[in-house]
């Protein structure tokens, strides 16, 4: 009996693949992981990695998320300081909890895209801050 696909449950067949390169995408950045092996579904194309490959793929994805969160933390902190806002004032402005910016800037939490977008606009047009806090 053919191996069943865990993704689509088709029994059309799982085909072995070895030493393939996969690309992981997160928040517009990519990482490639080489030398992955496993099985691919003939019906839906979904890959099921071998245990070691699955661990390497997951670790690469986690590293990508951590790296991007660190970049975002630094960017948020830089813009907040440029605007002359305390963490509490920045949280008041964006509606987060009083310690939201402390958590963003330590990488413990990711700010909502609305917060990131607002800060990027204020980075380009800091004079608009006066309209927001008035
Ligand atoms: Zn499938």
Structural class of the helices, strands and pairings?
Answer: alpha+beta
Number of domains: 1
CATH superfamily: lambda repressor-like DNA-binding domains
Helix content class: 40-55%
The topology string of helices and strands comes to EEEHHHHH
Folded structure, characterized:
With 134 residues, this protein is α+β, with helices and mostly antiparallel strands. Helix content is 47%, strand content 22%. It has one domain: lambda repressor-like DNA-binding domains (434 Repressor (Amino-terminal Domain)). It is built from five helices and three strands. The protein has a three-stranded antiparallel sheet with strand order 1-2-3. Helix 1 crosses helix 4. Bound molecules: zinc ion. Zinc ion binds at residues 5, 7-8, 10, 41, 43-44, 46.
List keywords for this structure.
134 residues; alpha+beta; 434 Repressor (Amino-terminal Domain); three-stranded antiparallel beta sheet; 5 helices; binds zinc ion
